[in-house]
Amino acid sequence: MGHKCFISYKKEDQAYRDELDNVLESADVINKGLDRTIDSDDGDYIMQTIRNEYLKDSTVTLFLIGTHSSEYEGYDSKGQRKNYFIEHELQASLYDGDGNTRNGILGVILPEMDSKICGSQYQCPVCGNMHQIIRLDDATVIREFHMNYYIEPHSGCTWSEDERYCVLVRWEDFIDNPTHWIDCAYNKRDSEIAEKVKVRNFR
User: Fold this and answer.
1) Which of 5, 52, 54, 101 has the highest count of CB atoms within 10 angstroms of its CB?
2) Angle subtended at Cα 65 by Cα 83 and Cα 63, rounded to the nearest 5 degrees
3) DSSP character string of 158-177
4) Is 131 helix (H, G, I), strand (E, B) or coil?
5) Is the alpha carbon torsion for 49, 52, 55, 59 positive or negative?
6) Which pTM was predicted?
7) Which of 92, 77, 73 is nearest to 11 (CA)?
8) Nearest to residue 83, comparing CAs of 58, 102, 63?
9) Of 82, 63, 67, which Cα lies nearest the Cα of 115?
10) pLDDT for residue 2
C-alpha cells in the first residue's frame, strides 16, 4: 500500500475502527486521534497544530461515516460541538499550508448509513444515462466532506470523478480491496481538482 493513513471516526464506531487493524495490517496506520480542544482563534494555528501533533506524515485520511458523523450532531452540555474533533481532523487533512501537504480523503460509508446515503438509480432527463442518488449533505456528513465531493462549479448534469476531491466507498467494498481505494484517495492529491478544495476557517 505504501501510504500512511490517519483514521477519523466517532467513538460510537470504535468496533469498525478496531476491525480496520486487521483489514489494514499491511498498511502504515496512525492510531492517534484529536483528543483535546485547541484554545485559539487563529485558524491557521489550529490547522498547523493538528497537522504537527496528530496528522504528521500521513497522506490519506480515512473518514468513517457513521450515524454520528454529520454536521448536525449538535452541541454537548458544555456548549462544545459534538463533532469538534472530526471537523478539525478533516479540515486539517484538507489544509495545504506551510510545511505540510494536503491528504487524500476517503469516506467509508458504514453499513448503518448505507441506505441513508446510497439511494436508487434514476435515468437522467438531460443525458439519458443512469445515475445513482448519493445523499451527502450536512445531515449525513461533515461539511468539508460533501463540499469537496460535490465541488462547485462543475460541468454536465452530474459530477464526474475528475470533479470530486473526496472519494466515497461502501464499507463492504472497502474491506474487499482497501489498497485500491486508498490509492484512489492518495492520487487525488496531485490531480487538478486538488486546486479547488475548500476548507472553512474554523475556531
Assistant:
1) 5
2) 80
3) S--GGG-SSEEEEHHHHHH-
4) strand
5) positive
6) 0.90
7) 73
8) 63
9) 67
10) 66
φ, ψ of residue 71 to 5 degrees: the values are -65, -25
pLDDT tens per residue, range 177-196: 998 999 999 999 999 999 99
**Cell matching residue 188:** 487525488
Task: List the one residue out of 166, 45, 147 whose CA is nearest residue 103.
Answer: 166
User: In 3D, which of 185, 175, 190 has the Cα closest to residue 16?
Assistant: 175
Is the pLDDT at 56 greater than 80, yes or no? no
Q: 99 or 102, which is more confident? A: 102
C-alpha–C-alpha distance, residues 115 and 46, integer Å: 35
Inter-residue long-range contacts of 179-183, CB under 8 Å, 24+ positions, other chains counted: 179/1, 181/106, 181/108, 182/1, 182/3, 182/5, 182/27, 182/60, 182/62, 182/104, 182/106, 183/1, 183/3
Please tell me the distance from the alpha carbon of residue 31 to that of residue 29, in angstroms, as a whole number: 6
Q: Burial-class residue 50 by CB neighbours within 10 Å (0-12, 13-18, 19+).
A: buried
CA angle 6, 11, 50 (to 5 degrees): 40
Q: Which residue has the higher pLDDT, 49 or 38?
A: 49
What are the residues facing 29 on neighbouring strands?
5
